[in-house]
Design goal:
- The protein has eleven helices and two strands.
- It is mainly α.
- α4 packs parallel to α8.
- The longest helix is centred in the C-terminal third of the chain and has 28 residues.
């Protein structure tokens, strides 16, 4: 079973557990060791799935208390967006524009609102992402961990409505854009280190309550990623199409 398929099956299993009668919203979730044994997976795979569930709002980690079920409900809007399929030529520009419109202002707000728990989750996710540098699994897992980093950076803005929208965006990016991320890493060894440094800068900006640095760095990351995609995948570019930030730049 592929790593991404295994993670998805673990997520499905954890969602079912969260929906059981004895795990209603507010109840403590089983310990990590118990869950790994019950599902027959490594703690690393389980940890990755748990981070996804936390970002999706299914579970909540409380410092020194454990993991708790946050919600057993699913949102129809989120489900519909997650199942949405777009041609690569449409998806690439649309998701980049949405991320620039939503995620940059969100990360600026996160620099003011973030909590110690947010920072802990971000650094843990960043460490897992950094661990992949130069490894054989980097092209497969890198996109997943980076998607989680983006999601957690936005989650730190602590806006419940934004979190639900962001959940659907993160899922689409991970599912539809993983192949682009892997090809960029394979074609340019410095790319992984570059985006790793950008995410580290964003987290440190959140840590030091610096919204300008956080927003500027994420904006640069999105633009550079879009330009790299166009360069490596010219067949997905739309001739004459003005991307959102080009329009804004002309108006300023």
């Amino acid at each position: 079973m592929r790593a991404d398929s295994k993670k998805e099956s673990v997520i499905d299993a954890l969602v079912k557990i969260a929906g059981e009668e004895n795990y209603k919203a507010g109840n403590r979730f089983p310990p990590e060791r118990e869950l790994a044994k019950r599902l027959g997976v490594s703690r690393n795979v389980l940890r990755e799935a748990m981070i996804s569930l936390e970002a999706m709002g299914v579970i909540e980690k409380k410092e020194r208390q454990g993991v708790f079920v946050k919600s057993q409900n699913t949102d129809k809007l989120v489900h519909n967006l997650q199942q949405m399929q777009l041609p690569p030529v449409e998806f690439m520009r649309m998701q980049m524009e949405v991320r620039m419109m939503i995620c940059v202002p969100a990360v600026e707000a996160a620099a003011i609102r973030r909590t110690k728990s947010d920072l802990e989750k971000l650094w843990n996710c960043f460490e897992e992402f950094s661990r992949l540098a130069g490894s054989e699994e980097s092209e497969e897992a890198g996109a997943k961990w980076e998607s989680l980093l983006h999601h957690l950076e936005t989650e730190a803005a602590h806006n419940a409505l934004l979190s639900r929208i962001n959940e659907s965006i993160a899922s689409m990016i991970e599912r539809n854009n993983a192949f682009v991320h892997s090809q960029l890493v394979l074609k340019d060894n410095s790319w992984f280190e570059h985006i790793r440094h950008q995410h580290e800068t964003i987290i440190r900006a959140l840590e030091s309550h610096d919204p300008c640095l956080a927003g500027r760095t994420l904006g640069e990351h999105i633009i550079e990623s879009y330009d790299a995609m166009k360069k490596n995948y010219p067949q997905y570019s739309l001739d004459g199409y003005q991307i959102y930030w080009e329009i804004i730049k002309k108006q300023s």
